[in-house]
Design goal:
Rossmann fold; binds adenosine-5'-triphosphate; alpha/beta
Length: 223
């Protein structure tokens, strides 16, 4: 039992959740191992974002069991969860009035990282995603793919154990989408983190094959 706990990043058993009074997740069972990369796929409105929001606790009402890194999600303090989990969204969610560096550094502040470490890691990661020299630009000066790379750096600051990506390539053309997912895949391997990517794109799944969890009628099935 102890060994299983140590190697599992996310364990969900019998999860039920509602949105606006309607049942969205109904007896969901799901598992992601440490360092594993997997996709979550399903029709629009099937509950993929709801599942992710429960994991990073933007939503907190649920029944059943959710464990992250062998601990009950409810027992993990919010500040600790923010350090454990990085999140990337379809719409990038960068603050327009702040520079690339300021956007990234804010995430470091939230995670309680010292300023020196924030700068060091941010600059290293910006180099890793080929955005050297863009730290003082504003989001509007960057392309969609570049903005998503900034959002990836922001999510990876502080080396989270788990990255959740909710349609991270949904706003990008197919070539840029493939580049961004390829980059995420490389970073996931380099950092040894677990990663769950919500996508609608069979093209991307074919290009970067991994386990696919299919969500339908409130349940998820491993395919
Ligand atoms: N704040 C909310 N209030 C009421 N209903 C909601 C709310 N958020 C989501 N829902 C409903 O919950 C269901 C699941 O939504 P969710 O966003 O999780 O689906 P999804 O699979 O991520 O969809 P998409 O692929 O379109 O992003 C939908 O029927 C949606 O309308």
């Amino acid at each position: 039992m102890a060994t299983t706990m140590a190697t599992t990043m996310i364990r969900i058993e019998g999860l039920c959740a509602s949105c606006g009074g309607r049942s969205v997740l109904d007896d969901v069972h799901f598992r992601l191992e440490r360092g594993e990369f997997a996709y979550l796929r399903g029709r629009s409105g099937s509950g993929k974002s709801t599942l992710l929001k429960l994991l990073y606790r933007e939503l907190s009402e649920f029944e059943g069991a959710i464990e992250v890194a062998g601990r009950r999600l409810r027992d993990i303090p919010r500040h600790e969860l923010r350090r454990m989990i990085g999140v990337v969204f379809q719409s990038f969610e960068l603050l327009e009035g702040k520079t690339v560096y300021e956007n990234i550094a804010m995430a470091g502040d939230v995670r309680g990282m010292p300023r020196g470490r924030i700068r060091e890691e941010a600059m290293k990661l910006l180099g890793r995603v080929s955005l050297d020299g863009r730290a003082n630009d504003y989001p509007a000066q960057l392309s969609g793919g570049e903005q998503q790379r900034v959002a990836i750096v922001r999510a990876l600051l502080g080396k989270p154990e788990l990255l959740l990506a909710d349609e991270p390539t949904g706003n990008l053309d197919s070539e840029t989408a493939a580049e961004v997912l390829g980059l995420l895949r490389e970073l996931q391997r380099e950092q040894g983190m677990a990663m769950l990517v919500v996508t609608h794109s069979q093209e991307l799944i074919d290009r970067y094959p991994a386990t696919v969890w299919e969500m339908a009628e409130g349940k998820v099935r491993r395919r």
